[in-house]
Amino acid sequence: MKKTFFSNGKLLLTGEYIVLDGAKALALPTRYGQYLDVAHTTKNTIHWQSFDADGSIWLDQEIQLSTVFENKQDDQNSEVNTLVKILHEAWLANPEPLNDIKGLSVTTKLTFPRLWGLGTSSTLINNIAQWFGIDAFDLLAKSFGGSGYDIACAQNDTPILYHLDNGQPIVEPVAAFNPPFADNLYFVYLNRKQSSKQAIESYRRRRNSVPPVRAKIDELTQQILHSKSLAEFSHLLQEHENIMSEILGLPALKVLAFPDYPGTIKSLGAWGGDFILATANENPEAYFKAKGFEIIIPYKEMILDRGIDFSEGDF
């Protein structure tokens, strides 16, 4: 009998980096995500296969159960080591799924290209947590680490407000974030995957400037959530970018790469890679494609939101 699990991908609209220090962030679950299928076999191993969105296999490994129980690390394969560590921590939290079994066939399938940075790791962790019946935030803390907003997105079907209170995740699903100007919002892939771990390490070296602006980021997050016009939304995004630019000691991406773009550009998550959000009065595909960026996804095609449109007075 096969069991199937699914988790949503993620994008972080506000509070990047500072969410680690308690700031309130507006996070958006995506329509894209990852499946995990588990079936029992008689192989005496865990046969693990991970498929990218195009159907190609990026991980195909036979893992001995003893490797998981003992957390044995293979010096030659960091991806397998990471997987074994996650499974080991899940097993420690709840041994039952691996008790009295002969073998397993486990398959993961992304519905977005792995290099897009929409949460290959967080969707995996949340799926494994569902499989083992354990707390995904705890599993994240014992494996990858991070703020946990991506786990919250994996578990929610509407945008969320997220923050840490003494290290504990606080998740507030919002009725909807489907503003009347949603058709003027586009996500653009920057053709490169940004390392979240490296970005966080860089931020931590400069974090002394954070406490004075955390309250301002909280305020901006609320204002952005309740924006009623594209002009207001764009102005608030730019203010957020200016604050983060100063904290990180980095020029805002629009200044660096798109100075002639007529709309606003907001970095999402780790600066310098993955996706950006672009506001536009008209479809900006021609502009970005001329600069070599072929993947431009309208807001409504990217963001999962099964809530109620507050622009109609229900928020």
UniProtKB/TrEMBL annotation:
Superkingdom per UniProt: Bacteria
Keywords: Kinase, Transferase
MF terms in GO: kinase activity
Protein name, per record: GHMP kinase
Species for this entry: Flavobacterium cerinum
